[in-house]
Automatic annotation (TrEMBL):
Domain of life: Eukaryota
Main EC class the enzyme belongs to: transferase
Protein name: protein-histidine N-methyltransferase
GO cellular component annotations of the record: cytoplasm
Species for this entry: Neodiprion lecontei
Keyword Ribonucleoprotein: no
Family to which the UniProt record says this protein belongs: Belongs to the class V-like SAM-binding methyltransferase superfamily. SETD3 actin-histidine methyltransferase family.
Length: 491
């Protein structure tokens, strides 16, 4: 009834007046000679991060990009002068209350292993409303940074809403007298996303399918940074004037990471589409597996958060971020959920164009509503192989007579069932393929699961520990799937 469920993800007004610059936020200006060198490095960076020829050499490309970014960061030499987050909480809470937020019964507190989170000041029963945040307090391009309309024709701002939101954050962070100051002051100064990882940290993902996604994410953000550096240095408009002297790689990483770790989709003002926004206070909640209990109430025009389970006074209040794999959490949110029942190991499979039976296989997969090239998830638990994955493997293993039979059959969906009657040789081929593939995937890692569990007891940096936790969860899925297939073969 007037509500839309929110899954934590994650109207520009005309504004032609000049913006007031806020240079004191940075320690000093960049000298002209250093600025020229930064621009030169950014041109190299843009080429390295844009050239499709590097798509097949992601690691080498990443190392080159990282080397240039280290030079850029040394040249920029601009550290943010930020007060401690804990000192900003009082003004932040006051700002929320003054603008109509209902946050009675909750407070912001530090929790071991979580940094900040929400604490219950009284008992909450499951389904009870914890807080509601009105639209005017939700940071989005309809409520914040109206100056962004100047860039409305820019392709990145126009077609990439998360990029637009990141630039909006930087505009509000650097202009004087921002109405969002109290929210910005309580945000983290840095994050645990892959953008903050060094090459030494990233090498810990060797053998993991997550490495590719992490490298592409870093590559994309490097390209965006170099693009906007060029834009702000070469264009004459109020946004460029505001950000020209303060736009750095570290600033952009902060803005992008803020969006990646906190964005959510809400309906726009007229309800015609979903837009991305940051929801103050609610975005302080940490993740716990459970059901989605946050709605956007179109009638009251507020984000409403309800307790997903009972919470006692003094406990940390959690919300569920949705059904995501640890790979997604790691790359986009900077954490790993150890007991993630929604986790999965991404297994990329495809029908080769050189396959003599490619046409028939692709046609049969289409009847099953399956793509000919895609990622399938191996799941944790008792049944790691999904119906879709099983059907794909069967089609992949069929000979011409079986393909012709099932293309004519009106019971093609039976291929998704474990007990489907198939030629023994087909089922044997499926099992042998999975057995070989799983052993190869496990062997791709430079360490064993047992070694990783042992390393976990040693002293590690935060990012190395995250990468290790991810490797362990991936290997546990692979070993579980291998045990399943071996028992399948014996049976």
């Amino acid at each position: 009834m007037g509500r839309k469920k929110l899954h934590p993800s994650a109207k520009c007004k005309q504004h032609n007046a000049s913006l007031n610059k806020k240079i004191p936020h940075q320690t000093k200006r960049i000298s002209p000679s250093k600025r020229n060198e930064i621009n030169v490095q950014c041109e190299k960076l843009f080429h390295l991060s844009s050239n499709p020829a590097y798509e097949t050499q992601l690691w080498e490309n990443y190392v080159q990009i990282s080397s240039i970014l280290e030079k850029v960061k040394r040249l920029e030499e601009m550290k943010i002068e930020s007060s401690k987050r804990c000192e900003a909480i009082g003004n932040f809470v006051k700002w929320l209350r003054e603008n109509g937020a209902n946050i009675d019964g909750v407070s912001i507190a530090e929790f071991p292993g979580y940094d900040f989170g929400l604490k219950a000041e009284r008992n909450f029963t499951e389904g009870h409303m914890i807080l509601d945040i009105p639209r005017k307090l939700i940071f989005c391009t309809q409520t914040a940074a109206p100056e962004l309309s100047i860039l409305q024709n820019d392709p990145l701002v126009q077609h990439m809403p998360h990029v637009a939101l990141a630039i909006a954050l930087l505009i509000e962070r650097h202009k004087e007298n921002s109405q969002w100051k109290h929210y910005l002051d309580v945000l983290p100064n840095q994050y645990s996303t892959v953008l903050y990882m060094s090459t030494n940290d990233m090498i810990e993902l060797k053998g993991s399918p997550t490495l590719e996604g992490a490298l592409k994410q870093c590559r994309n953000i490097a390209r965006q940074y170099s693009y906007f550096n060029r834009f702000f240095q070469s264009n004459q408009n109020s946004v460029s004037e505001l950000l020209r002297e303060v736009f750095t790689y570290e600033e952009y990483c902060w803005a992008v990471s803020t969006v990646m770790t906190r964005q959510n989709r809400i309906p726009n003002e007229d309800g015609s589409k979903m837009i991305y926004g940051l929801i103050p206070m609610w975005d302080m909640c940490n993740h716990e597996e459970g059901k989605i209990t946050t709605d956007f109430n179109r009638i009251s025009d507020k984000c409403e958060c309800f307790a997903m389970r009972n919470f006692k006074a003094g406990e940390q209040i959690f919300i569920a971020y949705g059904a995501r794999t640890n790979s997604d959490f790691f790359v986009h949110s900077g954490f790993v959920s150890i007991d993630n029942k929604q986790d999965g190991f991404k297994l990329r499979l495809g029908i080769s164009k050189a396959d003599a039976l490619q046409k028939e296989r692709v046609e049969l997969l289409a009847k099953l509503a399956l793509p000919s090239n895609d990622e399938f998830l191996l799941k944790p638990g008792m049944e790691p192989i999904s119906d879709d994955l099983l059907a794909f493997l069967r089609v992949f293993s069929m000979r011409k007579p079986e393909l012709e039979h099932w293309l004519q059959s009106d019971k093609v969906l039976d291929l998704k069932h474990v007990d489907c009657a198939l030629e023994t040789v087909i089922e044997e081929n499926v099992r042998r393929f999975m057995l070989t593939r799983l052993k190869l995937l496990i062997a791709n890692y430079p360490t064993t699961l047992e070694e990783d569990l042992e390393i976990m007891n040693s002293s590690l940096s935060h990012h190395k520990k995250l990468a290790l936790q991810l490797r362990i969860t991936e290997k546990q899925i692979l070993h579980g799937a291998l045990d399943y297939v071996e028992q399948w073969i014996k049976a």
